[in-house]
Design goal:
Helix content: over 70%
Distance between the termini: 50 Å
Radius of gyration: 25 Å
Largest sheet: none
Structural class: mainly alpha
Strand content: under 5%
Number of strands: 0
Amino acid sequence: MKPIKPIKDRPAPLEYNRRWSMRLWLLGVFVFLYAPLIALVAFSFNDSKRNIVWQGFTFKYYDKLFRNDDLMIAFANSITIALVATLFSLVLGTLAAVLLWRFRFPGKAVVEGTFSLPIVVPEICMGVAMLVFFATVIPWPNGLPWPFNLGSIIIAHVSFCFPFVAMVVRARLVSFNKEQEEAARDLGASEWQAFRDVLIPHIRPALIAGALLSFTLSLDDFVITFFTSGPDTVTFPVKVYSMVRFSVTPEVNAASTMLIVLTVVLMVIGALMQKSAQKKT
């Protein structure tokens, strides 16, 4: 006897139409989101100065990009600022998340709302506020305003990025069982040892995600950096903007493509690290 094949459930006509409409809707959303990026990457290889008509494939604009010393200095500034801002944001955001999760104190709701302000306030307002802050509130001892250099940009980026880290870590702490930490304390662990060996491994995926988010936000930021940078301190997004003001050339597309590739690579690395951290926990 031949084995009886199971009868597959066929979707109802209404459900079938709904599936296709949803697929078409998702396809339209993806095209709307990623078609401009694909066009930008494609035209970075265009052998034409006008950049509106495809005239051939070339790598010469990438060669010009890597030979542009000003652009490379701006890129190094962006990497330095992003790394330092991520480090400080990770520490401050983690401590703030643990503080709000563990303790109860008067005005806790106000503090939580204050932490979320940099997330909801428009970046243009943050940039103007930082400009006023550095120019008038904290002058140098000689009476001059705070110099607009890497230090001012890093401070501005930390104040903007660390609430994102606190939000991600706080969400991860909700699933933590406090009895594990209490058991570690009963077995003789100090408060620091319990924090390092019990709490940190649990929130490690959130730390990776928060660091990746902070680094990406700092690396790609333009508005806040524009208001807090000086004439001698130019970051990569600000430099690309200054190039776009004159004309959108394939070299501008090549610079933008490098920034997109770097962001995607960081996202992939962060996702892999987060996945491995979740397997260990």
